Amino acid sequence: MALVKKISSLRPPMATPKSGSHQTRDKLLAATLDLLLTHLPQNITAQMVLEKSGISRGSLYHHFEDISALLEVALVESFAKTVDKSLIKFENIIKKAKNREEMLLELTKVTDATQQKSLRAIRFQRARLIVFSEDNPRLAKALAVEQQRLTDTIADLIGMAQERGWMFTGVDARSAAVLIQAYTLGMIVDDIVQEQMTQENWSALIHRLIQQVF
């Protein structure tokens, strides 16, 4: 199965601008996504979205229950875009590699690229979204769809590598998919301390883990 097709099929359908009402919704969402680049979600108000989008207050509440609902959709959409980028990177690992050694080399390259200290804000955004979903069933349900999509597809890629003899078959593919995400997000515990580990030491440890576990 082509992974591009699988990635596309797992993505929940987004509203398309078939009418003026959908175009209005998209403008509101685009404005909110833009605001999220420079503001924390809890600091974004309905007035800020209206001013940036040029949409009326009545139209906002026609398409969304309240500003919180709009923010939830925007946060999940932002995460979905991150998922898409991640899956393309993982798919390219399988496409480019001709053997286990090349696959592990590509995996370590992706690991190094996604765990830079400069990506601190992205890790905090991911953690913040998880926290927000704890007591928000509506957000939790939407977030779960994207998280499931990410884990499922990484697990499928690992399964493909195992079938080719490039990864240890004794490792559960889904558990390995979760592990990859865990050590990527896990750097956040070092982001908040003053005396931090070096990027080189962390990368060396993850490279060793990849070689010995996968």
Main sheet: strands, sense, barrel:
none
Q: CATH H level of the largest domain: which superfamily?
A: Tetracycline Repressor, domain 2
| Fraction of residues in helix | over 70%
Shape type: elongated
Instruction: Report strand %.
Output: under 5%
- Distance from N terminus to C terminus (CA atoms, Å) equals 23 Å
Radius of gyration, in Å, reads 20 Å
Number of domains: 2
Question: Overall pLDDT, averaged?
Answer: 87
Which spans have pLDDT < 50 for at least 5 consecutive residues?
1-21
Structural class: mainly alpha
The CATH topology of the largest domain corresponds to Tetracycline Repressor, domain 2
Essential attributes:
elongated; mainly alpha; disordered N terminus; Arc Repressor Mutant, subunit A; 11 helices; about 210 residues; about 75% helix; Tetracycline Repressor, domain 2
Mind explaining what this structure looks like?
By secondary structure, this protein is an all-alpha fold. It folds into two domains: 15-64, Orthogonal Bundle (Arc Repressor Mutant, subunit A); 75-213, Tetracycline Repressor, domain 2 (Orthogonal Bundle), CATH 1.10.357.10. Helix content is 74%, strand content 0%. The protein is built from eleven helices and no strands. Helix 5 packs parallel to helix 8. It is elongated. The protein starts with a helix and ends with a helix. Residues 1-21 have low confidence and may be disordered.
